[in-house]
Amino acid sequence: MHELLERQATGLARQLVRVFVEEIPIYRRLPREELDGDITWITEHNLRMICGVFRHGRPPLPTELTPVRASAARRAQERVPLEALLAAYNLGARWVWDRLIARATPADFAAVLDMNRLIFAYTEAVTSAVCTAYLREREGMLSQEQHAMHAAVSALLGGDPAALAAVRPAPAYLVMAIFVAEHPDEKQDEPGGAIAARRKLARIRAAVQRHATEQVLFVLDAAGGLVLLPVASGEAPEATGVVEEMSRAAGVPVWAAAERAVPAEVPAAAKVAEEVLEVARVFGHPPGAYRLADVLLEYQLTRPSRATAELAGLLDPLLDNPDLLRTLKVYLETGLDRRRAAELLHVHPNTVDYRLRRAVSLTGLDPADPAQLQRIGAALAARRLTPP
At what angle do helices 82-100 and 109-158 cross, to 10 degrees? Predict the structure, then answer.
């Protein structure tokens, strides 16, 4: 059998490459020069390696597997999926096996069993060699990519012109500060909780990357962080859509604040985004995407000022009666709709009227007066920021 296979190795290799192209989609997209050269050569090498396995009755030697490892590393560099590579090796082994035993008779039963054992030994050896070499190469590539990503993030956030020139930034970025809620699986004991957190982050990264043709830059942990989404040209992706997709992928609510910026503006944009995100969270806004324009009043109230404490103090007379403070807050949140406020508070509308009159008498602030309504809204916002 090894003599028969060796005589036909060159022709069989060419036939087998054609089978790869027909059966495995990624091989149809490989350059003809690569198929006729490297792929055909490594296929013939594998056929001759099988000859050696049959001739000597043992698995491939480590030296024989060296070209297989080198070929797998090149496929990793070309980003050919590992599953496609393994499919080619399995398809090749099956294709060769079918042709070798096509004329076997019952008298060849013992020989066919021996050949089957040796084919398994060959497949086990090449599978291990291919996976090890491929994954080692990919790990090296990922390490380089992560180093490049960290360098790009550092350059952008540091605002160093020389560093920016070295990393070739995108024309602009959608800078997003995000907060990610904890997934129920993260509550497991180690290592289950840590694995769940990493899986959540991987899903978030994949969801965001689908919105960009270039590499998205991430500085994330399980609770959130910064995302710099490259904007090649034209309009940036809609932040709301990106955040909704992140939330679906993560399986938990996601809050985000977004600012568009050219590379030199990224440090300032990141700072504003982080502050806007904090404001949205402090003031109890629901999950979603926010810009500075969405939280202008709350943002301004969070800036250091003596006026913040003064505003919060306007409602101090209500502190001894939490029902009055809560009613006033719900009344404003419902757009001064007393019936809707009563439904949310589970009381009669007349009770809402009574509580509002009491609040007016204690504070002197009447929500029916447009000027005083603004002061009440600002006072409620400031109270959220004022320690008890």
Answer: 170
Model pTM greater than 0.70?
Answer: no
Which pair of tokens denotes residue 223? Answer: 């609770």
Q: Which pairing describes strands 288-290 and 172-180: parallel, antiparallel, or unpaired? A: unpaired
pLDDT in tens, 78-99: 888 899 999 999 999 998 888 8
Name which of 101, 96, 90, 108 is nearest 48 in CA terms.
96
Q: How far is it, in rounded angstroms, from Cα 324 to Cα 362? A: 10
CA-CA distances (angstroms) from residue 173 to 110, 163, 260, 261? 67, 17, 6, 5
pLDDT in the model for residue 301: 73
Give residue 35's identity as a one-letter amino acid code.
Answer: L
How would residue 236 be classed by pLDDT, with cut points 50, 70 and 90? Answer: low
Nearest-angstrom CA–CA distance, 388 and 385? 9
Query: Is pLDDT of 315 > 80?
Result: yes
Residue with tokens 């035993």: 101
**Nearest one of 89, 90, 87 to 68, comparing CA atoms:** 89
Which of these, 97, 83, 93, 82, lies nearest to 124 by C-alpha position? 93
CA atoms of 261 and 173, how far apart (whole Å): 5
Q: Are 258 and 273 in contact (CB under 8 A)?
A: yes
pLDDT of residue 375: 80
Do 332 and 342 contact (CB within 8 A), yes or no?
no
